[in-house]
Every structure is written in C-alpha cells, then in structure tokens.
Amino acid sequence: MDNNSLFQKFVAFTTSVHQITSEISKDVKSESLTPLQYKILEYIAVSQPVTLSEISDCMHMSMPNTSRELKKLGEKQLCDKITDPADRRKQGITLSAAGEAMMNEAFQHIAIQFAERMGSVTDEERKEIERALDLLQQKVFY
Amino acid sequence: MDNNSLFQKFVAFTTSVHQITSEISKDVKSESLTPLQYKILEYIAVSQPVTLSEISDCMHMSMPNTSRELKKLGEKQLCDKITDPADRRKQGITLSAAGEAMMNEAFQHIAIQFAERMGSVTDEERKEIERALDLLQQKVFY
DNA sequence: CGATTTACTTATCAAATGATAATTAAAGAG
DNA sequence: CTCTTTAATTATCATTTGATAAGTAAATCG
C-alpha cells in the first residue's frame, strides 16, 4: 500500500497548510468585517469582475445569503456593482477603491508574514520550493 | 523581487489547497455533526489523547466554547474524557469506539476521493510528489 | 404576444458560533 | 494552612451564518 503512505502524507500536509495559512492571516481581518465577508472580498479581489451567481457557486453559499452579504459590503463601500449592459439581470461586481486599498493592505500583511517565514532560505532552496509548488499544484491540487 | 513571485505562487497554491480539500471532504460531514464539531473530532483523531486547553489553543476557540462543543460530542458518544491521575484538573480526551469508527469512515471516504484524483500517476511521479510534499512541509508549512 | 427561465432581492427564521461573567475543584506557592 | 493560579464548567447573550419562501425584473422561448 504505497498509495496509503502517500495519503497519510497528503493529510498531514493539508492539515499543516490550513494551520499555517490561518496563522499567517490571523490578524488580517479588518475589524468591521466578518470572516465570511473577508473571504468574499478575497475572492472578488482575485476574480473580479464577478457575478453574484459565481460567488454563490464558488463559495458554496445560497443566492439569498450571497445577496445579503454583498449588500453589506456595498454599504461599507468596499465593492461596486455594475449592471451588465448586455444582460441587465447580471451584475459585475468589483472592488471599490477603498476595497482595493483594504485588500492590498491585507495581502501586504500576509506577504510580510510569509517573508518572515521564508527568512533564511537560500536561492537554491527557493528554486526547489518553487518547483515543488508547481509540481503539486499541477498534479494534485488542480 | 524574486521573493514576490514566490509569494504569488504561495497564495495561488494555498488557495488551491483549500479549494481541493473542501471539495474532497465535502460530503463527509456526517449529519448530526456541525462543521466545527467535525473539525474538532479530526483534531482529536490525529492528536489524541488531548486536553481541553490544547484543543482551545490549537483551534483558536475560547475554553467555554470548547467545553460546550466537547460536551455535545460526549453526549453523542463520540469521545471519552479520562481524568489525568497525575493532575485531576486535566482531562485526556480520546475518540470513543464510535468516534473512531466515524472518523475511519470519513478518512476512508477522503482516501477514495484522493485515490481518484491521483488515479493515473506513475510510480516515478508518485515519488516526486512525495518528495515535494516533504520539502514543502519542512521548509514552508512547518 | 404570453409563458417560462434566469439573476437577483427581500424578509424571516433557525442554528451555529463567538464572547463574557461567574463558579468549581484541584494544584502550587509561600 | 491561606492565597493564587490553572483547568474546566455553566449560564447567558450577541452575532454570524444557513435555509426557505416569496417576489421583482429582465431575458428567452415558442
């Protein structure tokens, strides 16, 4: 059962990834944002412009709940909705300037934590790590 | 800024890991268990025996809330508490037989999903993947 | 055109989770 | 033996999140 030992490693690995990412982005959550709202902003940031339905699908939440949270984000001036001229039922959602600023700051903060963690890594190791990330992303986490 | 491109990869990678693990373990959640309760059981499963304080620390939840959830898990007969004879304030928490059974089934299910995903991977690739997992766990997600 | 479907909204309710204060019992310090 | 600290519990409340029913407006179908 070689496959089984690989699975063990997979489980241990994903557990570590969850733990480390949560640690790294622990105090990123701007007050005034719930965890869910932060995650939605994160998703918008990397996928914008995006529709409500897409958010609903990708984040596994119902349309009504998605609508509610997005309304709150809109009220907080963190994202903009633009009605799609080609299909006026759809709304293209993007980060507002304030939203971009907030997310930039958040990513900045995460980047610093990451840099600290990577601190004493040689160039050679850095390349190895990069190759390993590519490999796993391609063969396992696609 | 070579470090920056590595960071980009890191973010993309961790996002993928979260997405794939959530997909793989999507319908594992036994009804009658809340997500939090499932995560706690998962933690107990890999770290048992464990104290309440440890769960509280590692899962970033307050003692009262930890106590509440553990009480529920106890009522559901999924875990046992054994008072530490050396320090009778502490409780060693383990999975009950039923808890073990449930978690075995859950892991089994995840293992199958994983095997499907790994399906057409050669022995050589498998070894590369294993090395990549080891490397990243050691240098990044420690 | 009328009927149906799609994208989204509003309202409401229930459950899950987070936060705090107060309490108990055991252990450790002086 | 007191005093303090530690581990855990109980009770309570607020907030967050999930689920469902019903409604609106635009698009599409026939």
UniProtKB/TrEMBL annotation, chains A, B:
Q: Which InterPro entries match?
A: HTH_MarR-typ (IPR000835), WH-like_DNA-bd_sf (IPR036388), WH_DNA-bd_sf (IPR036390)
Query: What positions does the domain HTH marR-type occupy?
Result: 3-138
Q: Which residues form the signal peptide?
A: none
Superkingdom, natural source = Bacteria
Q: Which SMART domains match?
A: HTH_MARR
Q: Give the protein's recorded name.
A: MarR family transcriptional regulator
Taxonomic source organism: Paenibacillus helianthi
Give TM segment ranges: none
Please provide the record's keywords in A-Z order: DNA-binding, Transcription, Transcription regulation
